[in-house]
Task: inverse folding
DNA sequence: ATTTCATGCATCAATGATAGTTACATGAGT
DNA sequence: ACTCATGTAACTATCATTGATGCATGAAAT
């Protein structure tokens, strides 16, 4: 539990949802991730607010993807789950009174800000459709099958 | 205490040491950082092992810088303190059995690895001398004084 | 209508890492 | 000897994610 795995987890869940046209319950999704249904609902709640996914109660209820996979980037998902801190390292104090610390914060902060911008940009350049393609491509590699097929059975 | 501030803290301490030719005690260094002397010794222990700083016991003892500031990069310092995790986000499991998670890890991991490489490279491009210069430049800005002076009093 | 299923949400415990503190041993200098 | 300062172990505090439980809400099936 050392690192925040919400982005990784929600992407995992989304790809499973993308593979099934019918709604998937948070219990079913939680099983594939070996976690608790409440954890799944917690992260998906943020996506629901932005309209990326949809949830329905009662029999046959569950979660479905509400947007075209090509229209949602990893950055969109990252922001939907609350844009958690990307870096594990940071400053000692945000408002230092010491001139030395000001200089350290300035230099260190410049590197971190640049790295953050680039990472977010790289998240923005990958869509859920890309992720799905990577998944199917990986499956094809393992099965040593052709990569030109549009639809693979599960 | 949300983020790891060891790198920020140790750089702060190093710049203070660079300003004073005489050894500084961990108690004095801790005061400037508003922390505990043991915390200072803990982070500086890693630098001592690599020969970046030197410590001496007894009267007049304390910590001194043992290398030319221009020869030590921020990346050297980062590695000396144990190369702690840079990112707060990561995978759910490092050895997933699920093909979907494999794909997610591959795509997400690629972005993170690239960002890590770039961040470490940017750390490697900054030396302690650069940091010291940035500090003195900041002081000069505040004092509206010349920047061509070699030595500034403290 | 009642039962069943599934989400929505509040609340609390578990976990793991840094940060902070205390205590004591070691060694250098006066 | 006595004092100063590091070296290190051990413990507590803090904070965020994660996991778990309980209960209310609402939709579908019987």
Result:
């Amino acid at each position: 539990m050392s690192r925040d795995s919400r982005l990784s987890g929600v992407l995992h869940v989304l790809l499973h949802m993308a593979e099934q046209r019918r709604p998937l319950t948070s219990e079913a999704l939680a099983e594939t991730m070996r976690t608790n249904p409440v954890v799944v609902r917690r992260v998906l709640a943020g996506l629901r607010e932005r309209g990326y996914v949809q949830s329905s109660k009662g029999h046959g209820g569950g979660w479905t993807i509400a947007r075209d996979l090509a229209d949602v980037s990893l950055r969109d998902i990252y922001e939907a789950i609350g844009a958690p801190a990307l870096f594990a390292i940071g400053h000692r104090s945000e408002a230092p009174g010491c001139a030395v610390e000001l200089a350290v914060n300035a230099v260190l902060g410049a590197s971190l800000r640049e790295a953050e911008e680039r990472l977010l940009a790289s998240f923005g350049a990958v869509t859920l459709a890309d992720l799905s393609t990577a998944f199917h491509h990986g499956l094809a590699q393992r099965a040593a099958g052709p990569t030109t097929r549009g639809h693979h059975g599960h």
Summary: The beta strands of chain A are 53-56, 62-65. The CA atoms of residues 10 and 43 of chain A lie 7 Å apart. Residues 1-6, 35-36, 38-39, 42, 56-61, 84-85 of chain A lie near DNA strand D (CB under 10 Å from a C1').
